[in-house]
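A protein record pairs a chain with a discrete description of its three-dimensional fold. The shape at a given residue is found from the number at the same position. Here is what such a record looks like in full:
>
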Amino acid sequence: MTALLELRDVKKEFAVTGGLFQRVVGKVAAVNSVNLAIEKGKTLGVVGESGCGKSTLARVVVGLHPATGGEVIFDGKQINKGDAGVSFEASRRIQMVFQDPYSSLDPRLPIGRSIAEGLAVHGIGNEASRRKAVGEILQRVGLPAQAADRYPHEFSGGQRQRIGIARALILEPELLVCDEPTSALDVSVQAQILNLLRVLKSELNLTMMFISHNLAVVRHIADDVVVMYLGHVVEMAPSAELFANPRHPYAQALLSATPVADPDRRGTRLRLTGELPSPMNPPAGCPFNPRCPLANDRCRTEVPKLAQAGSARVACHAVQEGRASKLEALIPA
């Protein structure tokens, strides 16, 4: 199938300032040489612990953060450099659902105006047609059309997230980037939002990038999964393959740390030693080597590249050399 979104060696660095005159004293590589692709109609899950670069990657994709290097290719066109018209059109076709549904809405505006803002920016329709479109999209996400005249504080957290989804979908995007859209919600509400996203994806033929630290959620919704660590992609695999047979030691540790409700299916947790390295001073070689039980001298000096391992791609010398042992996935079926 054709890739709708492709990232080629994408990097994002943030300057660190200090001192009386706030001079640049260092850089943080939040995203480091990421290469991935999302096929049309598929959902790509992006997982990893806090600080691994998931949200920064999402913001680079939608254009909220300019990439420091590399290429963001959408529907065959590079959108992060060059033609402003191409980037503007891509901003309509790529939309984002944010983690905190309250802070992503203007508390001074009725939600109808917030939802319709994208239509006004892109010059779509007139005031009457926009109001009609707002009512229709609200009903599609499970809210009454009359809710358009109410303010964000009048809604529950789950309802506000539905509003955020409506705002993203009103422009009829092709790619929907979801940055932990359920992490701020109760468990029962999470399930409702996830089911809503799955239905909308099917009905609207959406392609999705779904970012989460909840592996059970990613397993439920994603076709393929990318595992990130300290700004690097360490493993890419089809969802079923990753959860059945994680290859990278970090991916194995993530899965072993996931709670399992069935006591008969619990296994030994793979505990990582050491602290997460500072992104301002990353280790030489493999970024995971200070915490990896399989690290050797090569791991400490040479950065591993993504290489094919079955149906997965893994950046790990131990896997490529046949030194990695399989850890049974501990997430319940």
Observations:
- The longest strand covers residues 23-39.
